Amino acid sequence: MDTDLIPENQRISAWREAAAPVWDIPAITSGRFYAKVDAYQAHELIFGTIESSSQKTERSTAQIASDGSDFYLLQVYLRGSREVVGSGRDNLINQGDMLVLDMTQAVKTNCGEYKSIDIAVPRRLLEPHLHDPDAHGARKLSASRPLVSLLRSHLIALHQSGPDLTCQDVAALQAPTVAMIATALNGEFGPENTAAMTEGIRLAVRRHIEQNIGDLRLSVDQVAAQFGISRATLYRIMDTKGGFVTYVRLRRLHRCRAEIVDPKLSHKTIGQIAERWGFNNPSTFSISFQRAFGVSPRECRQIAFGLTLARTSAHKDHDWSHWLSKVK
């Protein structure tokens, strides 16, 4: 997308329309506006460059409830800066820094003229490799960190190679790219064998939970037996996630949210969806859902279906932002 290729009086509205599946743009803060996007849909990843004049962007609770997108967005700033507020953080991202956004968490930004390399990674691909998957919203990774520098170089090379990559190439590159992102987000490991072993078990346990989250018989005893560890060890391993039961409940709430906003499941009542994921008490489910996502299950569905109907005709499948809205 290049707004310079369309009449000047249509550029801002075209940009807002293009970004609408994932971003609201409440203000354009520059005189002559321009925006350019050069993006690739590569296997399950989306990467490319974005450059634009000054603007404010927002991803609100209503937007999150509407689109159901569930991915991490990483932006490496090649030029310019961005102020970002969200997830209890207030950061200024400068040239060379990396901004990490969790697209299930509300965020507001204010940027000057900038250019960035962006990559979108589905949560289901990256989350199993992260120590704390919910702790990365509006996070700043400093340009001075060696792992950030390494990842920045990789993303630049990936974008430069984009026109020549085959489908087989990007499929082969996906796993190493996700691993490199996870390493940068997690930071460097200490040399202690015990800590490394604990972390390895934790990641394996979380992968097992994710693969079996639909089994309502999933329990501490079953998982402990699967990995040959005691209940006490499993409790200790999962303590950083709020405990085994809390973690499983949160992952099932995410599955409920995805089904509540899915138009294909509009014939299912919220109660039926909740029961499918083990929430048999409607009142308890509603309270847990509200705490996790900031809206009630009913509000989430109303917002999602209302906004989806209003926007369906405005976007085509080849729009770069529409790709992002489908990353689950």
From TrEMBL:
SMART domains cross-referenced by the UniProt entry: HTH_ARAC (SM00342)
Keyword ATP-binding set for record: no
Gene3D superfamilies: Homeodomain-like
Entry annotated with the keyword Transport: no
Domain (HTH araC/xylS-type): residue spans on this chain: 203-303
Keywords (A to Z) from UniProt: DNA-binding, Transcription, Transcription regulation
PROSITE patterns for the chain: HTH_ARAC_FAMILY_2 (PS01124)
A Pfam family hit: AraC_binding_2
Record's protein name: Helix-turn-helix domain-containing protein
Source organism (scientific name): Paracoccus amoyensis
Top-level taxonomy: Bacteria, Pseudomonadati, Pseudomonadota, Alphaproteobacteria, Rhodobacterales
